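Every protein is a chain of amino acids, and every chain bends into a shape of its own. Below is the pair of lines this work produces for a single protein:
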Amino acid sequence: MRYVVLVSAACMAGRWCMGMNGTDSPVEILLAEDNPGDVTLTRKALEEGRLANNLHVATDGVEALGFLRQTDEYADAPRPDLVLLDLNMPRKDGKAVLEAMQADEDLSRIPVVVLTSSESEADIARSYELNANAYLTKPVDFDGFVEIVDRIDEFWFQVVKLPEG
């Protein structure tokens, strides 16, 4: 598990910078992604954004659930405000993570955005059946990735009012 504190370039330049729901606290984001290239793209896209955030990376579904449940080595992990979830991961895939989250009253309250390369109608339908809040297909270029992450930021942290804790 890697912990990365990201403060956007806009924040560092003294422009607009805030955490979730207008607070000064950074947003806690869990990225469940096994592809190092996609982790790098997500990290860079978040750095380009307007949102102060802490990005936590789990490279498979087992790590993601350990982080979410705050078990063993993740006992001190913060509760994420948002999960960005890839479906195609080793050991335990994203659908299994969604199933586990749906079955847990506490975890089921955390918003989940499926961010995956799969365009399969079956994957889309199953993700929503398992209470994913959104399903996005990963763009292949950096500018598209930045745009998607900016839209996630805008919707989940500027438009929507989420419960605390």
Q: What stands out?
A: Residues 142-159 form the longest helix (18 residues).
